Amino acid sequence: EKGGYPHFMLKEIFEQPRSIYDSMRGRLDASTGRLTLGGLIEYQNRLANADRIIMVACGTSWHAGLVAEYIFEELARIPVEVEYASEFRYRNPIIRENDIVIAISQSGETADTIAAVQIAKAKGALILGVCNVVGSTIARMTHAGAYTHAGPEIGVASTKAFTAQLTVLTMMALFTAHKKGTISEARFRQLLVGLETLPQKVEETLERVHEPIKKIAALFKDARNFLYLGRGCNFPVALEGALKLKEISYIHAEGYPAAEMKHGPIALIDNQMPVVFIALQDSSYEKIISNIQEVKARNGRVIAIVNEGDEVVKNMAEFVIEIPKTEEILSPILSVLPLQLLAYHIAVLRGCDVDQPRNLAKSVTVE
Ligand code: M6R
To answer: Where's the SIS domain (predicted)?
Structure first.
């Protein structure tokens, strides 16, 4: 059942080329410029005319929402708010006629997300679901949606569901932007090609980073703390990397937008502090390089996720992990992979129960 892997989590990490492909299958064809999301066709106009999109979710699914905020705003120019379902439900949230609520949930059974959907529904909002489990409570409650089709996820730590959520949310943003005319046909086509080539790049990435990550895991398995830093659409990836490490290895970890470091967490940095940077050659590159310098100046141990061929960060960081280049908004799907593997290998080396971490359940069906 684990397909020869020692844990479901590792199996699911390595399933990602396939699960991402499955999330696009029958929906996208770059050669003809076709993008269809069956369940959303009748809502394409509503999406294009939305005044605001509110995403509600918990945990890793909330991180997917944060990445999607960058993508929707960039492509479709619609303001997005991303809310913890547990906060949204108790706040008497303001929902207007032209708002659309997107509920993101792997299981479709998370109690807080169910309650958030109920409240938004009672206020008359259009609710769309991005769920993995077909026929789950949230999938049935929403007006329409797009399944992630990642297949069953057994490991408590979400991995393939996250990258499938990102793929589907990106397709939703493109579907909306195309209708709305906020991106050119050429750009639309480029991004379809970017999406279509992702499964191959995910496979390359996993192959390429696995051994180097194992070495880094062995060196840092006894660390007491970890800091993860990223900017732009890779800031939520920093949060996700930290969550993965916390939940399965029980090491305290925090994710931050790199520029926020100066506003507090920089005080934590000394020669005992591993700092994982997502430092890709994108619109944040120069800025993140300065942040790396700030950490180095305080003797922090820099581990950087970089694009292949990067020379600048290579000369600064103690360790670099190279990943292929892709479109900036698609890069979280690649940059999260080494972070999943790092958490996995550290947890295994510490003797933790990777698939069933203490105190955690796969779906949180009580509040
Ligand atoms: O099934 P859901 O996507 O609604 O679950 C939300 C969170 O409980 C979940 O992502 C949790 O944070 C994971 N254990 C993270 O790996």
So the answer is: 43-182, 216-357
The reply to whether ligand 1 has any atom less than 6 angstroms from the CB of 58 is: yes
**Within the chain, which residues score under 50 in pLDDT?**
none
| 98: Cβ contacts below 8 Å, ≥ 6 apart | 49, 50, 51, 52
- Please tell me the predicted confidence (pLDDT) of residue 335: 98
Distance CA 305, CA 308 (A): 9
User: Pick from 250, 225, 270, 267: which is nearest to 348 by CA?
Assistant: 250
The finding on whether 137 has its CB within 6 A of some atom of ligand 1 is: no
Rounded CA gap, 64 and 19, in Å? Answer: 16
Question: Measured from the CB, is residue 356 less than 6 Å from ligand 1?
Answer: no
d(C-alpha 183, C-alpha 101), whole Å: 23
Question: Measuring from atom 12 of ligand 1, which residue has the nearest CA?
Answer: 59
List, in order, residues 6 or more apart from 133 with CB less than 8 Å away: 106, 107, 108, 109, 139
Cβ(194)–Cβ(327) below 8 Å: yes
* Centroid of ligand 1 to alpha carbon of 71 (angstroms): 21
| C-beta of 59 in contact with ligand 1 (< 6 A) | yes
**Mutate-to-test residue for ligand 1 from 13, 89, 110, highest number of ligand atoms within 8 A of CB:** 110
DSSP alpha helices (H): ranges in 53-105? 59-76, 85-88
Q: What's the chain's length in residues?
A: 367
Query: Is the CB of 158 inside a 6 Å radius of any atom of ligand 1?
Result: yes
pLDDT value for 367: 87
Ligand 1 within 6 A of CB of 136: no
Tokens at residue 348, please? 């295994």
Helices (H) and strands (E) in the chain, counts: 13, 12
Residue 158 CA, closest ligand 1 atom number:
16
AA identity, residue 265: P
Task: Output the pTM of the full model.
Answer: 0.98
| Catalytic residue of the set 2, 179, 214, 362 | 362
pLDDT at residue 1 in the model: 87
Q: What 3-state class would DSSP assign to 126?
A: strand
Is 362 considered catalytic here? yes
